[in-house]
Every structure is written in C-alpha cells, then in structure tokens.
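tRNA pseudouridine synthase Pus10
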Amino acid sequence: MSSLTEKDRPIVQLLLKAGTCPRCILRFCCVGSQVLYRHPHKDLMKDLQEFLENNQGKEDTVCLDGADPPCKRIRLEHREEGAEDQNHNGAIPQVPEADSGNAGMESSTVKVCNVCLGILQEFCEADFVKKVCQKVNSADYQFTSFVFSVSLPPQLSVRERAAWLGVKQEMRNLGLPLAKDDIVQLKEAYKWIIHPQLSEELGVPADGKSLFEVSVVFAHPETDEECHFLATACPDCFKPAKNKQSVFTRMAVIKALEKIKEEDFLKHFPCPPSSPKKLCDALEIQCNNGAVFVAGRYNKYSRNLPQTPWIIDGERKLESSVEELISEHLMAEFRADSFNFSSSGREDVDVRTLGNGRPFAIELVNPRRIHFTAEEMKRLQQAINDSSDKIQVRDLQLVTRSAIGRMKEGEEEKTKTYSALIWTDKAIQREDIAFLDDIKELKLEQKTPLRVLHRRPLAVRCRLIHTMRSEYLDEHHFRLHLKTQAGTYIKEFVHGDFGRTKPNIGSLLNRTADILELDVESVDVDWPPTLAD
C-alpha cells in the first residue's frame, strides 16, 4: 500500500470503522494508481490493516516506502486543534482490532460498502465480468474494440457526499486540508478495475473512442427512501417526468446536492453514511454499436411510388416507397434496429428520377454487422436492383457521418435539370414557344405551394430558372427542358398555382398551361464518389 501516507491514516480509520470497502477508502485517500484498485478485495483489506498497525506510535513517519517525513510543527498544530480526537497518549485514535465488532469486512461474509453499495466489491469479481461478456457474445455484434459505460443509482451521490463530509470533518479537526476534487470518482475507479478484465475476456482493447458500447445499469431498492429528504429540502429540483418511474434521477439528485446547505444535509443524513441493507442490482447489461452510414444514388422509374412511406391520417396510400425498397435489404444485411433516410431533395410520387440519380444516405442504427468489403457492397447493390423494377441504385458505399454533410451543404446553390411535358389550352406553333430558349436567369417569386402548405411554412421564396429549351410536339403539347436552382417548384412554375408563382409558363405564353409529366434529369451534387463498375 505504498501510495498511502501518514496524512491518510485518519481517513482510513474513519471509513474502515464506518463500513467502507478498501477501494472506496483508496478513492477518498486520492490514490490514483490504477493497479492498486485491481488487487483482490481481501488483499486490500489486509494491506489497510497492516498500514494502520505498522504506523501506530510512529509519530515522525508520515508515509510508507520512503515518502518525506512529517513536519513536527504541523504535528503539534494537529494536537492543539484536534485534541478531542486524541487519546490520553496524544495519538490519533485507532481502528478497533480485527476481533472487534467493526471488523466484519474481514469475515467470510463481506459487508456491503456504505459508499459504493457493493459496486467496487461484488461487481468487480470475475463472475460478474463473465456474465457481462456472455451477454455481449450472445448479442452477436461485430466489433474490434469497446467502450464501457456504467449508470449508477442516484443515491450514490448522496452517500459519497455524506462520506466526504465525514472525512472533511475529521480532517478539519486534525487541521489537514481535503479537496473534494482530488477524490477519485467511483465510475473512474470501477473502469480501472473492469476494463482489463473485459478486454481479456472479449479479446479486444478498451477504447474511449470506440463505437461499440457495453453498458451496465445499476439500481438499488432504497433509492427513493434515501433521497426523500432532498425532495423536502429542494422540492423544485424534483419534477415528475412521463418517461421516468421516479423523480429521483441522477441529475435531479446532483442538482439538489448543489443547492442544499451543508448543515441541512448533516441534519438528515449520517456522515459517514450507515451500512445499506442490500447490495446494488445489475438491472441491465446492454450492447450498442454506433450507427453505420451507407450512401449512393437512386433512380426512380415509377410514377406511382413516393420517396418515403405515404401515410395520411394513419392510412397507408401506396404499398411501398423508394426508402423502403432500399432500406429493407440494408436492414437485413447490417442487422440494424432501425434506420433514418435522407436525400438531396425529393421528387413527388408521380415524378421520375432519371440520369445519374439522386444522392441519398441511410443511417443504420445499432447494427450488429459493420464490416463489408467493396465486393460485398456490390452484391448488396445488385440484390436491391434485382428486387424491383421501380428503382435502381448505384455507387452504394459506406461513408462517415461527417461526409453526409456534403450532400446537404449548399443545397440551394446546387442546380437540377428537369424535363416537363406541358399542355396548353390554346393551340401553339413552334414560333410561339421558341422565345423560351432565349430566356436566361429568370427570377421567380414562389409562395409556398397550396399542395404542400399543410407541411411547410408560408413564405415567398426567390428561385432562378437558369436556362430553358423547348421541344415542340403538337398544337397543344411541348416538352420543356429546364436547368434550375435547387428547391424550385417546377409544377407551380408551369401552371402558376393560381398566381402564387410569378412569372410562370402560363403568363409567359399568355394562355393556360398545365404539366402532364415531370422527370428529374440530373441532380448536380458531386457526392457520393462515383464507383467503378
């Protein structure tokens, strides 16, 4: 126990007597050596008792293993300021011998720690580590490293505060400083102990940046009982929440502990805390893989297929969608819990997307499988394409979360090319539409279209028609090829939307015009990268 010094002795004495486990005692003695925490519980208890016995009566020896000797002047100051804590020989009171009633921790039945509620005791043992690893292995995830997280019962913050106040009072009586910031946090100590064991059992390293998370949720049956006094002292900190079974959440308890006065805390909770009746429960052992992102481009060949599920008032209107035709294969191969679909713009249900397709990305949430070769991604792409004649996918690839931003950035500055089949009520000749070819950078003012006003805010949007090229078909029909600013409502530009888009094809031709068919010819977003066939 080379990290302990003479100044730690009163802390060790106080906490051992109160029923604190050896590892929590090391925490309150600000011991930062990770290796020490990994020593067996019995060995640590033995070392602590030897530390106390070996230093009894040695007034000029502050620490073990060669640390600096104590300052005699400070020792005298301690005697004056902490006289009530000294026996008639002037020595600091000792922890009772192992055969006394307070030495139960060394008996065959280990008492539950009054600070950590057993987390740094039973839940550091090999049996529990194996239980966690069995859960991980049975979940069948792919991972090359892991990050470990732990959720603790809220009253641990209360008990830690009580222990700290008890130690603080003891040190104050002895004239010694104690900073709460120096105490090793319970979660940190637990991870020091558990990480090497998990790493060895799982065969992969612990990595704080890993996307694969193993988490343990601890709970304790006495949480509400022990935190109830805080609700009386700080009622505004505890507000019922729909998704919470108890108002005593970790954050609410911490907030209350920050507000409550020290003297009020001391009135309602023993310092150091008393021994608990029960051990913590490991309520849940969970695994979660960070999201995987897949990108590509899709073509839509059907005029009866929405991009996303078309559901109105809870009723499904069409049997499938672009999103579903692509994602069902990805969900099956990646074995994910759910997905989120996004794209560079969207087309209406009756609009085709041709040319090089529309960029899209799918976030696969909590996937079990994460590693795919380029060849496997090609086969997955082919499986999607073989499953339906309504869509085709190209350039299917794994991408990073940050790369998806490139699909959205500067979206309104990008250009899109369309082909529209237009009908007019009055007969037209070639020369009636030829002037459209000469119009460049036509500025539009478009009020939110009536057809989307139920889901988009009312606004006037300025858009540009960069170029147009007309193709005469007959007296009442012509095809118009347009290159526009992204976000332009093409249908409304043709028929005018009752004057909500100005100018429009109808006003330019001085007759009624309507759109019969619309195709997206290209979406000029240089992402994702084109892949070789």
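thats it. The chain has 17 helices and 15 strands. The radius of gyration is 36 Å. bye
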